[in-house]
Amino acid sequence: MITVVIVLPDGFPDLVAVIIEDWNWDQLPKTNSDIWNSLLYPIFLGENIRSAQAGYAEKVLAPHLTMGAAQRAQSDPNWSKAVLSVINAELNVIRGTPGEGFKRAVLENVRESITELARTLSTALQFFKTHNVSVQKIRQIRNSRDETITLVDYAAREIYNVGYTKAVLWLYDCGIADDLAPPNSQNQRFLAECGYSGFGWSRHGVAETWQIFAPLCQRMREVADIVSRELKKQITAKQAQLAAWYLESCRGLPGMTRHGRQLTPTVLISFLESRSWSIDDLAKKLGDIERLEELGEELRDFVTP
Q1: Whole-angstrom Cα distance, residue 213 to residue 180?
Q2: Do both 64 and 42 map to the same domain?
Q3: Cystine design at 16: which of 147, 177, 220, 243 (Cβ 3.0–4.6 Å)?
Protein backbone atom coordinates (compact mmCIF):
# COMPACT_ATOMS: atom_id res chain seq x y z
CA MET A 1 0.00 0.00 0.00
CA ILE A 2 1.40 3.38 -1.09
CA THR A 3 1.37 6.09 1.55
CA VAL A 4 0.51 9.52 0.20
CA VAL A 5 2.25 12.44 1.86
CA ILE A 6 -0.11 15.41 1.97
CA VAL A 7 1.56 18.71 1.16
CA LEU A 8 -0.80 21.65 1.46
CA PRO A 9 -0.18 24.75 -0.68
CA ASP A 10 1.67 27.54 1.08
CA GLY A 11 -0.64 29.35 3.49
CA PHE A 12 -3.69 27.13 2.97
CA PRO A 13 -4.58 26.89 6.70
CA ASP A 14 -4.44 30.69 6.86
CA LEU A 15 -6.85 30.90 3.92
CA VAL A 16 -9.23 28.54 5.71
CA ALA A 17 -9.00 30.80 8.76
CA VAL A 18 -10.06 33.74 6.59
CA ILE A 19 -12.94 31.69 5.16
CA ILE A 20 -14.36 30.73 8.56
CA GLU A 21 -13.91 34.10 10.26
CA ASP A 22 -17.53 35.07 9.62
CA TRP A 23 -18.83 31.63 8.67
CA ASN A 24 -22.54 31.65 7.81
CA TRP A 25 -22.85 28.65 5.48
CA ASP A 26 -24.72 26.40 7.90
CA GLN A 27 -28.07 28.18 8.02
CA LEU A 28 -30.95 25.74 7.74
CA PRO A 29 -33.83 26.45 5.33
CA LYS A 30 -36.98 27.98 6.79
CA THR A 31 -39.44 26.82 4.15
CA ASN A 32 -39.74 23.98 1.65
CA SER A 33 -39.43 26.57 -1.10
CA ASP A 34 -36.00 27.49 0.29
CA ILE A 35 -34.92 23.89 -0.22
CA TRP A 36 -36.19 23.88 -3.80
CA ASN A 37 -34.55 27.21 -4.56
CA SER A 38 -31.23 25.89 -3.26
CA LEU A 39 -31.25 23.34 -6.08
CA LEU A 40 -31.78 25.88 -8.87
CA TYR A 41 -28.31 27.42 -8.98
CA PRO A 42 -26.40 24.10 -9.18
CA ILE A 43 -28.51 22.71 -12.04
CA PHE A 44 -27.03 25.29 -14.42
CA LEU A 45 -23.43 24.44 -13.58
CA GLY A 46 -21.44 22.52 -16.17
CA GLU A 47 -17.95 21.73 -17.34
CA ASN A 48 -17.68 25.10 -19.10
CA ILE A 49 -20.22 27.03 -17.03
CA ARG A 50 -18.83 29.07 -14.15
CA SER A 51 -20.66 29.70 -10.89
CA ALA A 52 -21.32 33.33 -11.86
CA GLN A 53 -22.91 32.14 -15.10
CA ALA A 54 -25.09 29.65 -13.27
CA GLY A 55 -26.27 32.35 -10.87
CA TYR A 56 -27.00 34.67 -13.78
CA ALA A 57 -29.07 32.03 -15.61
CA GLU A 58 -31.04 31.31 -12.45
CA LYS A 59 -31.79 35.01 -11.98
CA VAL A 60 -32.89 35.52 -15.59
CA LEU A 61 -35.22 32.50 -15.57
CA ALA A 62 -36.38 32.70 -11.93
CA PRO A 63 -40.15 33.07 -12.56
CA HIS A 64 -40.10 29.87 -14.64
CA LEU A 65 -38.16 27.78 -12.12
CA THR A 66 -40.45 27.91 -9.09
CA MET A 67 -42.04 24.69 -7.87
CA GLY A 68 -45.35 25.78 -9.38
CA ALA A 69 -43.80 26.60 -12.75
CA ALA A 70 -41.76 23.40 -12.72
CA GLN A 71 -44.95 21.34 -12.60
CA ARG A 72 -45.69 22.60 -16.12
CA ALA A 73 -42.18 22.10 -17.46
CA GLN A 74 -42.63 18.78 -19.26
CA SER A 75 -46.37 18.70 -19.91
CA ASP A 76 -47.09 22.27 -21.04
CA PRO A 77 -45.39 23.42 -24.29
CA ASN A 78 -46.08 27.01 -23.26
CA TRP A 79 -43.47 26.62 -20.51
CA SER A 80 -40.69 26.02 -23.03
CA LYS A 81 -41.99 28.82 -25.25
CA ALA A 82 -41.99 31.24 -22.32
CA VAL A 83 -38.45 30.27 -21.28
CA LEU A 84 -37.17 30.61 -24.85
CA SER A 85 -38.86 34.00 -25.13
CA VAL A 86 -37.08 35.23 -21.99
CA ILE A 87 -33.73 33.91 -23.23
CA ASN A 88 -34.11 35.51 -26.66
CA ALA A 89 -35.12 38.83 -25.12
CA GLU A 90 -32.11 38.73 -22.77
CA LEU A 91 -29.76 37.91 -25.65
CA ASN A 92 -30.96 41.07 -27.39
CA VAL A 93 -30.39 43.38 -24.41
CA ILE A 94 -26.96 42.13 -23.29
CA ARG A 95 -25.16 43.24 -26.44
CA GLY A 96 -22.24 45.45 -25.42
CA THR A 97 -22.70 44.91 -21.68
CA PRO A 98 -19.83 43.80 -19.37
CA GLY A 99 -19.42 40.03 -19.35
CA GLU A 100 -21.42 39.64 -22.56
CA GLY A 101 -19.44 36.59 -23.65
CA PHE A 102 -20.11 34.75 -20.39
CA LYS A 103 -23.78 35.74 -20.44
CA ARG A 104 -24.28 34.71 -24.05
CA ALA A 105 -22.54 31.36 -23.54
CA VAL A 106 -24.77 30.24 -20.66
CA LEU A 107 -27.99 31.54 -22.22
CA GLU A 108 -27.27 29.76 -25.48
CA ASN A 109 -26.38 26.63 -23.53
CA VAL A 110 -29.76 26.71 -21.78
CA ARG A 111 -31.57 27.49 -25.02
CA GLU A 112 -30.03 24.47 -26.71
CA SER A 113 -30.86 22.20 -23.77
CA ILE A 114 -34.36 23.42 -22.89
CA THR A 115 -35.74 19.87 -23.04
CA GLU A 116 -33.07 18.68 -20.61
CA LEU A 117 -33.84 21.57 -18.23
CA ALA A 118 -37.52 20.62 -18.26
CA ARG A 119 -36.61 17.03 -17.48
CA THR A 120 -34.35 18.10 -14.62
CA LEU A 121 -37.11 20.15 -13.02
CA SER A 122 -39.70 17.41 -13.51
CA THR A 123 -37.51 14.67 -12.02
CA ALA A 124 -36.54 17.00 -9.17
CA LEU A 125 -40.21 17.47 -8.29
CA GLN A 126 -40.70 13.70 -8.29
CA PHE A 127 -37.58 13.27 -6.14
CA PHE A 128 -38.87 15.77 -3.58
CA LYS A 129 -42.17 13.93 -3.42
CA THR A 130 -40.70 10.41 -3.30
CA HIS A 131 -38.25 11.22 -0.49
CA ASN A 132 -40.46 13.67 1.38
CA VAL A 133 -37.85 16.41 1.08
CA SER A 134 -38.86 19.14 3.51
CA VAL A 135 -37.57 21.40 6.26
CA GLN A 136 -38.24 18.58 8.72
CA LYS A 137 -36.27 16.13 6.55
CA ILE A 138 -33.23 18.43 6.38
CA ARG A 139 -33.28 18.94 10.15
CA GLN A 140 -33.72 15.21 10.70
CA ILE A 141 -30.62 14.21 8.71
CA ARG A 142 -28.49 17.22 9.69
CA ASN A 143 -26.28 15.29 12.11
CA SER A 144 -26.35 11.95 10.32
CA ARG A 145 -23.58 11.48 7.78
CA ASP A 146 -25.08 8.20 6.55
CA GLU A 147 -28.52 9.68 5.95
CA THR A 148 -27.03 12.72 4.26
CA ILE A 149 -24.96 10.55 1.91
CA THR A 150 -28.04 8.47 1.19
CA LEU A 151 -29.98 11.57 0.14
CA VAL A 152 -27.06 12.68 -2.05
CA ASP A 153 -26.97 9.22 -3.65
CA TYR A 154 -30.69 9.32 -4.43
CA ALA A 155 -30.54 12.88 -5.76
CA ALA A 156 -27.58 12.03 -8.01
CA ARG A 157 -29.36 9.00 -9.44
CA GLU A 158 -32.95 10.24 -9.65
CA ILE A 159 -32.71 13.90 -10.67
CA TYR A 160 -31.77 14.14 -14.31
CA ASN A 161 -28.41 15.80 -15.00
CA VAL A 162 -27.62 16.47 -11.34
CA GLY A 163 -24.98 14.00 -10.19
CA TYR A 164 -22.88 14.10 -7.03
CA THR A 165 -21.33 17.53 -7.38
CA LYS A 166 -24.63 19.35 -7.81
CA ALA A 167 -26.31 17.23 -5.12
CA VAL A 168 -23.67 18.14 -2.53
CA LEU A 169 -23.77 21.83 -3.48
CA TRP A 170 -27.54 21.73 -3.07
CA LEU A 171 -27.26 20.35 0.47
CA TYR A 172 -24.49 22.83 1.29
CA ASP A 173 -26.96 25.61 0.57
CA CYS A 174 -29.45 23.82 2.83
CA GLY A 175 -26.93 24.20 5.67
CA ILE A 176 -25.86 20.54 5.94
CA ALA A 177 -23.37 18.02 4.47
CA ASP A 178 -20.40 19.35 6.50
CA ASP A 179 -18.54 16.06 6.11
CA LEU A 180 -18.88 15.83 2.32
CA ALA A 181 -17.14 17.45 -0.63
CA PRO A 182 -18.32 17.79 -4.22
CA PRO A 183 -16.13 15.89 -6.72
CA ASN A 184 -15.83 18.95 -8.94
CA SER A 185 -12.82 19.97 -11.00
CA GLN A 186 -11.68 22.53 -8.43
CA ASN A 187 -11.41 19.95 -5.65
CA GLN A 188 -9.77 17.43 -7.96
CA ARG A 189 -7.11 19.95 -9.02
CA PHE A 190 -6.52 21.05 -5.44
CA LEU A 191 -6.13 17.51 -4.11
CA ALA A 192 -3.80 16.63 -6.99
CA GLU A 193 -1.62 19.55 -5.91
CA CYS A 194 -1.67 18.16 -2.35
CA GLY A 195 -0.39 14.80 -3.57
CA TYR A 196 -3.60 12.90 -4.36
CA SER A 197 -3.73 12.06 -8.04
CA GLY A 198 -6.09 9.68 -9.79
CA PHE A 199 -7.89 8.31 -6.71
CA GLY A 200 -6.80 4.82 -7.74
CA TRP A 201 -8.32 4.99 -11.20
CA SER A 202 -6.38 4.48 -14.40
CA ARG A 203 -4.46 7.51 -15.58
CA HIS A 204 -5.44 6.52 -19.13
CA GLY A 205 -9.11 7.24 -18.50
CA VAL A 206 -11.14 9.92 -16.75
CA ALA A 207 -13.03 8.62 -13.73
CA GLU A 208 -16.71 9.44 -13.37
CA THR A 209 -17.69 11.62 -10.41
CA TRP A 210 -19.65 8.76 -8.84
CA GLN A 211 -16.44 6.72 -8.85
CA ILE A 212 -14.37 9.31 -7.02
CA PHE A 213 -17.03 10.80 -4.72
CA ALA A 214 -16.28 8.63 -1.67
CA PRO A 215 -12.46 8.77 -1.91
CA LEU A 216 -12.52 12.50 -2.61
CA CYS A 217 -14.64 13.11 0.49
CA GLN A 218 -12.15 11.07 2.51
CA ARG A 219 -9.18 13.00 1.12
CA MET A 220 -10.84 16.35 1.85
CA ARG A 221 -11.56 15.24 5.42
CA GLU A 222 -7.87 14.40 5.77
CA VAL A 223 -7.00 17.89 4.54
CA ALA A 224 -9.50 19.32 7.04
CA ASP A 225 -7.86 17.29 9.85
CA ILE A 226 -4.44 18.75 9.01
CA VAL A 227 -5.85 22.27 8.94
CA SER A 228 -7.64 21.60 12.25
CA ARG A 229 -4.32 20.74 13.88
CA GLU A 230 -2.67 23.81 12.38
CA LEU A 231 -5.40 26.19 13.51
CA LYS A 232 -6.20 24.32 16.75
CA LYS A 233 -9.84 24.53 15.76
CA GLN A 234 -12.22 21.95 14.32
CA ILE A 235 -12.47 22.37 10.56
CA THR A 236 -14.98 20.52 8.41
CA ALA A 237 -14.49 19.10 4.93
CA LYS A 238 -17.06 21.65 3.76
CA GLN A 239 -14.91 24.51 5.04
CA ALA A 240 -11.68 23.07 3.65
CA GLN A 241 -13.16 22.51 0.21
CA LEU A 242 -14.62 26.03 0.14
CA ALA A 243 -11.14 27.46 0.64
CA ALA A 244 -9.95 25.20 -2.19
CA TRP A 245 -12.81 26.44 -4.36
CA TYR A 246 -11.90 30.10 -3.82
CA LEU A 247 -8.27 29.37 -4.65
CA GLU A 248 -8.96 27.32 -7.78
CA SER A 249 -11.72 29.62 -8.99
CA CYS A 250 -9.42 32.62 -8.77
CA ARG A 251 -6.65 30.70 -10.53
CA GLY A 252 -9.05 29.93 -13.36
CA LEU A 253 -10.26 33.48 -13.97
CA PRO A 254 -9.80 35.11 -17.39
CA GLY A 255 -6.24 36.32 -17.72
CA MET A 256 -4.96 33.96 -15.02
CA THR A 257 -4.48 30.86 -17.18
CA ARG A 258 -0.70 31.20 -17.42
CA HIS A 259 -0.27 32.57 -13.90
CA GLY A 260 -2.55 30.35 -11.82
CA ARG A 261 0.14 28.51 -9.87
CA GLN A 262 1.66 31.83 -8.82
CA LEU A 263 -1.53 32.45 -6.89
CA THR A 264 -0.85 30.56 -3.68
CA PRO A 265 -3.19 30.87 -0.70
CA THR A 266 -0.67 33.26 0.87
CA VAL A 267 -0.66 35.45 -2.23
CA LEU A 268 -4.46 35.40 -2.40
CA ILE A 269 -4.66 36.57 1.21
CA SER A 270 -2.18 39.35 0.44
CA PHE A 271 -4.30 40.36 -2.54
CA LEU A 272 -7.42 40.58 -0.35
CA GLU A 273 -5.53 42.63 2.24
CA SER A 274 -4.21 44.98 -0.44
CA ARG A 275 -7.78 45.72 -1.49
CA SER A 276 -9.22 45.69 2.05
CA TRP A 277 -11.61 42.99 0.90
CA SER A 278 -13.27 40.42 3.08
CA ILE A 279 -13.91 36.91 1.79
CA ASP A 280 -17.53 37.99 1.28
CA ASP A 281 -16.31 40.79 -0.99
CA LEU A 282 -14.39 38.23 -3.04
CA ALA A 283 -17.44 35.94 -3.15
CA LYS A 284 -19.59 38.76 -4.53
CA LYS A 285 -17.07 39.53 -7.25
CA LEU A 286 -16.70 35.87 -8.22
CA GLY A 287 -20.48 35.69 -8.39
CA ASP A 288 -20.82 38.84 -10.52
CA ILE A 289 -20.77 37.82 -14.16
CA GLU A 290 -19.93 41.39 -15.17
CA ARG A 291 -16.82 41.56 -12.96
CA LEU A 292 -15.04 38.30 -13.81
CA GLU A 293 -12.72 39.72 -16.46
CA GLU A 294 -11.88 42.75 -14.34
CA LEU A 295 -11.16 40.55 -11.31
CA GLY A 296 -8.97 38.27 -13.41
CA GLU A 297 -6.97 41.26 -14.65
CA GLU A 298 -6.52 42.58 -11.11
CA LEU A 299 -5.24 39.23 -9.88
CA ARG A 300 -2.94 38.82 -12.89
CA ASP A 301 -1.41 42.26 -12.32
CA PHE A 302 -0.97 41.47 -8.63
CA VAL A 303 0.89 38.17 -9.13
CA THR A 304 2.98 39.50 -12.05
CA PRO A 305 4.03 43.01 -11.00
Answers
A1: 9
A2: yes
A3: 243
Mark whether 19 and 68 lie in a shared domain.
Answer: no
pLDDT digits (tens, 9 = 90+) for 61-108: 999 999 999 999 988 999 999 999 999 999 999 999 999 999 999 999
Contacts of 71 (CB under 8 A, 6+ apart): 125
Q: 163 lies in a domain? A: no
The secondary element (H helix, E strand) that includes residue 58 is helix 51-61
> Cβ contacts of residue 235 below 8 Å, gap of 6+?
16, 20, 224, 225, 227, 228
Residue 194 lies in a domain: yes
φ, ψ for residue 5, nearest 5 deg: -90, 120
Residue 93 belongs to domain spanning: 32-136
Rounded CA-CA distance 181/216 in Å is 7
Q: Tell me: the pLDDT tens digits for 250-267?
A: 999 998 988 888 999 999
Residues 6+ apart with CB under 8 A from 305: none
Assess whether 43 and 126 both reside in one domain.
yes
Which residues on adjacent β-strands are paired with residue 49? 46
CA gap 49, 58 in Å, rounded: 12
Q: Which residues of 109-124 are buried (b: 16+ CB within 10 A; e: fewer)?
A: bbeeebeebbbbbbbb
CB of 233 closer than 8 Å to CB of 211 = no
On whether residue 147 sits in a domain, the answer given is no
